[in-house]
Amino acid sequence: MPGLLLDAMEPPAPAPAKGLHSYGFVVSHQKVELDVDFATQSLKGRTEITILPQEKKLDAINIDARQCKIHLRDILVNNVKAVASYEDPLETLNIPDYIKWTASQYKMQQDRLPDEDTRAEGYLQISRPLSVHIKEVDPFSDKAATPVTQRAIGASFARGSSLALNDPQSATSIFTPKTAAEQASNFQPLVITIPFSVEKFRDGLHFVGMEEGDSRYPHIYTRHSMDPGTASCIFPCIDDPAMRCTWEISIRCSRTLGDALKRKPEANQKSHSHHHHHHKKANGIVNGANGICLPEESQIPLSDEEKLLDMAVICSGELMNENVDLEDSSKKIVSFLCGTLVAAQHIGFAVGPFEQVDLGAEFREEVDDEKLGQGQALPVWGYCLPGRTDELKNTCMNVVHTVDWYVLTFGSFPFSEAKFVFVDDQIRDVEHTASLSLCSSRLLYPEDIIDPERETMRKLAHALASQYIGVGTVPNESSDRWVTIGLSHFMAGLYMKHRCGNNDYLFRQKTDSDRLVELDVRRPPLTALGSILHLGPFEYDFMALKAPLVLFILDKRIIKATGSAGLTRVISKLVIGANTSGDSVLTTESFRKSVEKITKYRQTDPFWQQWILGSSCPRFRITQKFNKKRSCIEMTIQQFQSDPVTGINESKPIPKHDFLREFKEEEIDAGEVQNCFTGPMTIRIHEADGTPYEHIVEIRTQHEKIEIPYATKYKRLKRTRRQRERVNASQAVDLTGEGGDDALYYCLGDVLQSQEDIIAWDLRDWDENLQQEMDNENYEWFRIDADFEWLCSKDLVRMPSYMYISQLQQDRDVVAHQEAMLYLKSANPHPLVSTFCIRTLMDTRYNYNIRLMAADVLRYQAVPEHGWIGLRHLEKAYTEFFCYPNSKTPRPNDFSNIPAYLVSKGITAAVAQIRGHDRKCPKNARDFVLDQLRFNDNQNNEFSDNFKVAELLVALTDSVIPRKKGKDEVLFDDDDEFDDEPKQFLKLVIEELDRHRRMDEWINSYQNIYTTTVLRCKLKLMKVGVIPVNPVEFAKYIHDGTFDLVRLTAFESLLDLGFISNNEVIAYLVNILSTDHSPFVRSRLFEIFCLGLAVVALGDGHEEQGQSLVKAEPDDLEVVTEVSTEHRKAHQIRTTTIIGALAGLKQDMGSNVVLKESLWKAVKSPELTLAEQASLLEICGILYDPVESMQVVLRLPRYWEAEHLGKGKIRFHQLNKVRTKPLKPRKQLAAPAVQPHPQPQPPPQPQPSLSVTLPTPTPPPPPPPPPAVVVVVKPSHTIKLSMGPPSTTKSLKRPLLADDNTIHIDSPAPRPRKMIKLSYNKYNAQKVRAILDSPPQPKKAAQKGHRGSVSSSPAPVPRQSPAISLPSPARTQSSASPAPSHYSAPPAPLPSPVVAASPAAPVKARKPLPDSVPICVPPKQVTKPATKHPVEKQKKSLILKFSLPRFPKIEPQS
Description:
Structural class: alpha+beta
Helix content: 25-40%
Largest sheet: 9 strands, mixed
Number of strands: 42
Mean pLDDT: 78
Low-confidence stretches: 1-20, 145-185, 266-296, 645-649, 715-722, 731-745, 1102-1121, 1244-1260, 1263-1310, 1314-1323, 1338-1454
Strand content: 15-25%
Shape: globular
Number of helices: 43
Radius of gyration: 40 Å
C-alpha cells in the first residue's frame, strides 16, 4: 500500500517547454462509430484515424483521450495489433478516501491535475508494430493518390482530391513549412483503429432528463470549449484546433424514446449513481423491497405517446443514410459525412426526440430564391424538443434571411447545410460546431413575446457568422483568436445594420465604445486576451466587445482613405479562399497583410501597434477659441490614458461583480499602456450659415495645437435666412411623424412651437443675453471625430450649452444626438434643458434610443427649485401618447408600434427615479407609477405584457427607495415620523409584489419573469433597509425542482444580503454547486458564490465603518471621532485594492470550519469537470494557507484462507477477520553472538542504505549456480529479493524505497542469483531490526529427489550475511541529505509477506499468512509441508521472516 500511495501522491513531472507542437504526422481523415446508451448514460465505440507520417522513424503515436476506457489489446495499426499504454488524466480528479486532505491541502491536488495544454503529448501512446513499415512512395504514383482519394470520401466530394491534398494545417506553427500535400506525398498513410468506451461522463457529453424528478424529455448533446481537451472526452482523437481533417461519423441509438429508456436486466446490477443531492433514483419500476428493475422496463415513466416518439440524431456534416440495425431492430444507425476540414472540437451532435422544422421552406420566399440563383438556396433546419415547434419557428424566423444575406454579401456557406438544435442546460447561449449550432432553449420565445427578439436575432446571426469565421476559418494560435471573434461579431453587426437600420447600428456602436473606454483600464491587449479566455466568461465578453469595435474603426478609416468597400471585401476574399484553396487559417500578421493587399490601405502598422498589440483607450480634452484677427479657430487637443480629472482613479471601488475578474487577472501582465494614439481625426465645424466644413488633422503627439481656417462670410445674413427656413419647416411637423421626410432634416425637435403648446407645456425660450451671445458666435457647433474613427472619450471644455442644442436639433448623425444628450444629462437642472428634452421626446422622427435618453434626462430636471418641471413634462408626455384624450386613464395596451412601447416603459422608469431634497420620490410620482400598474389592460393586445409588468414592478420598487446619502451629507431622521402615508404606500407596494408572485404560481409568465422580478425587488428593499431582512422570502425557492432561473435568483439574493456567513446556507449552496446535474446551474452558482465572497471581501456589510462617523449635534456642530479616520482608511484599502479585499476575505471567512469542509466535499464531487474543480481549488487558495503535510489512513491486513484444489492449484480467500497485532516470533536456535551494530554514519550518497553483517567462516569456491525461484504475489506490488554473495560493508544505513518498490540484496561480485518476488506489509522498522539482529537458524536440507524440493545443491558452506537494504521510516529521518519525496495513490493496501529464502535450502510450501493474497504457483513448485529433520551443524542457511514498514515517503525538513 505505501507504494500505491506514493504513486498517487507523486507530483507530475515538470512539463517541457511549450513551443512548436510536433506530432510527426498529419491527420487526414477520422472515422468514428458511437453507440449511445441512454439507460446507463454510457457510450462505447470505435474510431479509425488515418494519419500521414512526416518522418520515417515514427515509432510512437500519441493520441488524446480522456475519461475513456481504451481496449488496449484491440488497438490496430494497419490491421496489426500494436502495443499501447494509456493513463486517464481525469483520474487525478478523484481523491482517494484514505488520503485525509482538507481544503488547506489544495496545492497538492492542484499539482495532480493535468496540464491545460497537452498537445502532442497524448495520454494514449501507441507503438508502431515492427511488421508495419513506413514506406516512401512516389507522390505521382497510384499508391500515393489512393489514400488521398479515400480521405476525400469518394467522388461525391465536390472539391475532389486536389483540395484534400491542400491541408490547411501547413499554415499553423505545429507543422513544418511544407504543405500537407508535400508531407503526404512522401510516405504511405497509417490507419489506427482504437476501440473505447465511456461509462461516466464528467465532460464532453451531457445527458438531460435522466435524473429522478426531472420531467424533461431525455436527450444528450456534446459540450464544447475553445481550449482543447473536451472532444477527447468523447472519443480518442487529436484534440488540437490546428489538426483538422475530414470526418465520417456513425451513431447507433434507439429508434424510439421508449426503447432508449429500457434498461436491460444485466445493466441493473451496476449502480450509476452520480452522488447527486437528490435521493438515489429508482431504476424504473421496482419489484417489492428488493429494488430490482423489471426486465425491459422504462427507467423513467412515460406515456404511450411519449414512448413512440422517434429519436432524432443531428450531427455535424451531411446526413448520408439512416438504417435499422440488423442485429437489434429496436436500434438504428445514422451516418454523417463532413467533407470540410474541421478540428475535433468542432464536431458536435445531439440525440433525442427532437422535432424537425424546415426553416428554408417555411420562411424563404421566391424572390430570395431568384436572388441566390437556381439550386443555390442553402437548406436550413431547426430542431427542438416536443411541444416547442411554434417557439422554434418564431425564434428562427429571421435565420433564413440572415444566411441568404451572408451568401450574397460574403460568399458561399462553408457547409452544405445549416442546422440549429435547441437543448437544455447548456452554459452558453450558442456553441458553434461544423454546420451545427447548439443553442440553449432559453433563447426560445413564443410569438406574443417581443422584448428578446432583437438580442436573440443578433445571437443567431453571430452563430451563422461563426460558421464562416471561427469554424470554417480558424485562428492559428490563441493570440490570433481576436481575429476570428472580432470578424464574426463584425459580420453579425453588419447584418443587424442591414436589418434594423444605420441609426440603430451607430447608436449601439457608440454605446459600446463608451463602455469600452470605461472598462479598458489595466486590461491585457487583444493578442494577450486569447491565452486567458479560460479564466472566465468575462474575458470572452471583453474580447467580444473590443475586437469588433477595433475592426469597426479600421473599416471606417479604410473606406475614408481608399474609397473601397472596406473590410467587407476583405472578409469576402477570406471566405472565397477558404472555400476554394483551403487557405482557412488566420494569424494576426496574415490578416494585416490581407487588409493591405485587398484594400490598398498602407497605414496598418501603427494601427496594429496601438489598438491590437497595445491596451487602453485615449481620452481627449479639447479647448478652442476663435481668432478674429487671423480668422481661424485655434484648437488644442490633449490626450490622456486615464480620466484627466481623477487620473487613473486608483481609489475607485471595485464592483462586486468584478471581484472574481480582478482576482484572476491580478498576476496577468496587462502590458504597457499606449502613451499616445496616432492617426487621422475628422473635425467638422458647422459655421454660421449652417454649412459643415470638414477638416482632417493628423494626431501625432499627446499635445496637438491646430489652426482651422474660417470660411464663412456674411454670417448674419445667412443666419437670418436660415431662421426663416426653420419657421417655415416647423409648420410641416406633426407628432405622428407623417410627412416628416418632406420637412427639412435639420429642423428636428421643432414641435410644440405654437403659443398654446408653450403655455400648456410651460416651455421656455432663450433669454436676451443668451440670444445675443448666440448671435455673436462665429459657428453653430463643431464635432471632434465626426466620422467615428476613434474609440475614445471627448471633453469639449469651452463648447457652450446652446451649441449642444443646435447639434441635437440640426445634425443628421444619431451619434451627434447621443453626444448632445450625454452633455445635457450632466448639466445642471434648468427649465430650458427640460424644454428641449421634452421636444426631443415628443418628436417621433428621432431614433427611439434618443427619445429614451431624453426621458431619462428629464428626471434630473424634476427639482423643487423649478417647480418639478421635469416630472410634469414626463406625465404630460405619457398622457399625450398613451392615455385617452383629456384624461389620465391609460388606453389598453397596443404593442404594434414597438418604439412607442419602449418609450412608454422608459417614461415610467424615469418617473420612478425622481427624488427631492429629502432623498425620496414625491407622492404624485409614486402614485403615477402605481396607477400604471393598476390600470394596465392587455386584453385586446396580441402581444404579452410580461416584460412591461415586470418593469412596472421594478419602477414601483424604485419609487419607495430613498436616494443614497452623499459622502458629506448630514441628515436628521426625525422628519416624517408622524407621516403615515409613506408606510401605507409601502404596504401597497408589497401587496402588489406578492400578488404578481402568486399570479405567477398559477399562470406562468415567460420564464417566470414575475417571480424573478419580485425576488430582485425585495432584495433591493431589504438592502436599503426599507423592509426588514427576511431570508425566508428567498429560501423557499432554493429547493430542488424549482425553475433554474428562479432558483438562481433566490441564491443570488441570499448571498447578496450577506448570508454566505450562514453555515446552513453556504453548506447547501456549495453542495448544489458541486452535485447538480445541470452544468448551467453549476456554472451560475459558482458565479453567485464568488459574488457572495465579494460581498464579504469588499466590506459590503461594513459600510458604517467606512463612512465618516459624523454626529449631528443640536448646535449644528460636527464631531468627528479619531477612529473614523482609521476605519475609513482600512475600508478604502479593502474596497479599492484586490490585495486588501483578499486579506479581508481571508480574515472574515478563513476560520469558517463549515465552509472549509463543504468546499473540500465539493472538490471531491464526481460531477465536476476539470475546469470546475480547478476553480474551486483557486477559491481554497484565496481562503487558506497551503499545508504540505497530510494524514493518511492505512487499511489493516486481513486473514486469508487457503483451499487446496488439487493438481497443484491452491485457492486463497480473504476473510473479514482483521489482524491488529504482529505475528508471534518463531523459536530461534542457539547461534553465535552477533556483533554489535555500529552507529549510523552520515551517508556519502543521497540515498542511505541499511547493512547487517553476520560472522561466518571464509567461503569456499562458489558452487554451481542454483536455478532462480520467482514467486509473484498479485495484485500487490512486487518485491524483488536478490540472493548473492555476502557483502563486507559494515555501515548501518537506511535507504529510501526505490521508485520500483523493490528490495535488493546485492552482491558486489557478479554471480548467479536466486530471485524471489514477494510483497511486503506495513509493520514498523523495529520488528525488522529485531529479525536482523537475531542469529541464523540452520535447517536440514531436503533429500535429493524429495518432491518438496525445488532444486538440489551440495551442502551449503558457511558464509557471511548478505547486506539487506530496507526503507527508512519517514517519521525518523535525521540524515543530513534530504531524501526525495514521492507520492502516489494506491487503490488497495498491500499484504504482509513471509520471506523464507536460502541459496541451498529447499523451498517449503506452508500455509500462507492471513494477510497475504492468492499466489498461483506452477504445479512443480507446489509442495506439501515436509517433516522436521534433525539439524545438521555442518550446513547453514539464512531464514528471514519479516514485515516491511509501510510509511509514505515524506521529504524531511532541513
